[in-house]
Amino acid sequence: MKSPEYVSLLGYHLIPSVHYFFPESDGIFRDDNARSHRARIVGNWFQDHESSFEHLIWPPQSLDLSPIENLSDVLERALRDDTNLPPSIEDLGSKLMLLWPKIYVQKSYKLIESMPKIMCAVIRAKASPTKF
């Protein structure tokens, strides 16, 4: 998505959503560090709307501590490693549905069980990069 499209999306969806979900106060919005989210036009839009909600700036090299992100990455790699790529969106959906239970069972418990160890490492590193 290009920056102008992102600004349009924010204007169309974010402001009404903030007013709906946070009628009495300002909401908080956080986006990621996608290039289109960091463009000047986007920064200007956030400045123009700073009275409507708080925009959390995410550090450029932020830690990704979400187990679901890791599971998604494993699923994507499994799909790429398969020599029989699905020819259509429907086939892709079917393929993902076949891969997901195998990956979930193999990886999810390991990822969740590793979270205390990862969090301790992050705390010790004072949010600096870790081996995780």
TrEMBL record:
GO MF terms, alphabetically ordered: nucleic acid binding
Domain Tc1-like transposase DDE: 32-86
Domain of life per record: Eukaryota
One Pfam family from the record: DDE_3
Name this polypeptide is given: Tc1-like transposase DDE domain-containing protein
Protein source organism: Araneus ventricosus
